[in-house]
Each structure stands twice: as structure tokens, then as C-alpha cells.
Amino acid sequence: MAIIFDECHRSQFGENHDAIKTFFPKAQLFGFTGTPIFEENSTYKKIDGTVGSYRTTKDVFQQELHAYTITNAIDDGNVLRFHIDYFKPEDDKKAAKVSSKEYKQAVVEAILSKHDAATYNRRYNALFATSSINDAIEYFELFKTLQEELKNSGDEKFYPLNIACVFSPPAEGNKDVKQLQEDLVQEKADNEQEPDKKKAALKAIIDDYNAQFGTNHSISEFDLYYQDVQKRIKDQQYPNADYPHKNKIDITIVVDMLLTGFDSKYLNTLYVDKNLKQHGLIQAFSRTNRVLNPTKPYGNIIDFRGLENEVDDAIKLFSGTESSEKVKEIWLVDPAPAVVKKLDNAVAELEKFMISHGLECKPEEVSNLKGDIARAEFIDKFKEIQRLKTQLDQYTDIKEDQTAIIEKLLPEDTLRAFRGAYIETAQRLKAQAGQGYCE
User: Residue 385 pLDDT more than 90?
Assistant: First the structure.
């Protein structure tokens, strides 16, 4: 008998693993994980007599059969790179003096201002990782309050985000919740303090959810609520014309849940107000980097905790190499100024190409290109421009002067017209290829 465990970095360090080995003494056990537990990131104590040591993935599964690191996966294009916006208030001294509530309000205001850009105008959705159940509750209430204020302000451009919140309830002897909380260290600890208060808050959150989405969930059947939240996050895949936005979730506030093992290709953003490190950091970030199509160029991370050193340490630990600077180039996208420069070069290449064919670099001149080879070359050159522009559109830390440069390089009306010419040209070539025709 062979037993295969996925996500074995978290699922096979408790009592269940020992119970499985005892019950199936002759079974061969295999574990898969993108973030192994090494001595550097182990928090699981193994006691041998009076000696305490850290328990690693190698201790649990013994021989390593094969290593294919996240660096390999990113380099091969099997998962996306990351863009990290280390959010810093403009006035650091003032920020240091604000109260917890003022700080949280500033975070919510930042999220509301950045969300459309981060998610490509809500084509994708996001998780918001908070440091405790109490913080998650407070953030949920703040989103309600601030969005209601914006809605009542008469701002016609404001369209409210659908906010959900999920954390486990106090176990109270419930075996299913107890088993669930084996992997939810922070939530398990939080629920030991003022459990009745946590339970009442979760009940109110579920009631809001029911009112918003027309469901009938209850805290007594928490798992059904949790499954529905996951489904609605994944429902982002459907266009609003097929499945209205009112049925979807824009941001899900979490503590431990959904930060490991949960996959949705249409989730591209993680907001972080939680101290993360090592495997916990990489697992949380990796909720955002599933490959989809060119409109999702990377996983978007907006960090409110200043985790730059923790990111560097985690990349080094899980890269499988000592060349940390080279690895960072693989893991992280270029900063905005570098991409703006690449866009400048790409636009210059298009201008050079059009001039070489005796044409001005204008959208209306594309139809005058002669020959399929020239048309195909135009498609390649504009595709690169569009790729870089899509990447920049989703940068949440882009500066006003950089935006001005982009607009000067390629005004929105010109870009839209070129995109129309690009689509028309591509369709023409495709139709001719289907007919077996070539000029």
C-alpha cells in the first residue's frame, strides 16, 4: 500500500501521521510540498527522552526522492512571479503615532484605493491576511462603515466591494472543528480567549453574508459556510454578463484559513497585515500566482507590515541556491521604472518597424502593411507593448511621474485604436491560415 500526502509540510506533523504509521505499518508513505520544513523554519518539537529538537520533513518522510523548487517552477513558467508593493505611509513619523483604529482605517482606505488596479478592474479577486480573529472582525466592520460612507457621499464612480470574512469558530467539543484547527494555529489560540465574543462576531458576519448573497448558513454548520465562501471566490472565473458581480466576493478577510492549499486562478492579490515568515509567507503569497493568461502577469502582494527582510529570507530558504540576488530576479518582477523603460523601447521598436515599411506609426496605417510577414511582425511587436502595459496597469506602487511618461508614450485613445488594429489583423491572418492561403 502506498499513501501520498499533498501539502505535507502542514498535514503530517501532528498525531495523525503517527496514527497512520501505526495502523498501516507496511505502507510506503510519500509527501509532496512546495515548502519543506527544515531546521531553519521548524516549530514542531520532537522529544526523545529529555532531549528536545526540531522536527523536519526529512525526519517524517526520510529520503528525498526529487527536488523541484519554486524557483524552477517560476523559471519554467509553471507559476507566476510576484510583484510586491511594500506600502509605506508618506509621513512615517505621523504613522508611528496613530492609534490601532486609525492605522486600520488607513489600511482599509489604501486597499479601497488600490483594489481596482491590483485586480485589473476587478477581473480578479483578493485575500486579506490579518494577524488575529479580533483584527479580522475589526477590519470587516471598518470595510462596512467606510464603504457605506463612500456610498452616501454621492460619489457616482464608487462601486462597493463585496467583502467576506472567514475564521473558525470555538471548537466547543466539535470534532470536525477540532480537526480543522490542527492547521490553524493562530485561530485555535485566539478562540481560547473570549470564545463567546468570537462566536457572536462570527454569527453576525455569517448573517451579513446571508443577507448579501441570499444564503441561509449558520455557525452550527460552519463547514457549509466555509465551502460556499471558497466557491464564490472561484466563481470570479465567470464574466459578469454570465454571473453578476453581486454573487461574487471581491475580498475575503482571513486569519489562517485559505492561506495554504487553496487554489483559484482568478485570485491574483494578497493584502497582508500579518507577520509572515518562511514557509508561511511563501504559502500565503502562492495563493496569487497560478498561471492563467496574459491579463494575469504576476501575483500581486500589497504588504502593510514591512516584510521585505522576511521575503528575502524566505526566497533564499526555498530557492535551493545560495545566489539570492539572482534568485530574486526570477521570483520578483522588475520595479515600475524598469518596466516603463522596456515599454519605451517596445514603442520605439514599433515606430522603427512602421517607418521601415514607409508608414507613420499610427493605428490607421496598420491596414496598409503589405504581406502576411509584415502583418505578423506587427502583431508580435504590439503584443509586447500590450504585455508591458498590462503589467504596469496592475502595479499598485506606480508614481504619478511614471504614469505621465506612460501616457505620453502611448495615450489611451491611441492604445485602444492600435488594439483594434491588432485584433483585426490577427483575425485576418487566422482566417487566411484556415483557408490555406498566404500572400
Answer: yes
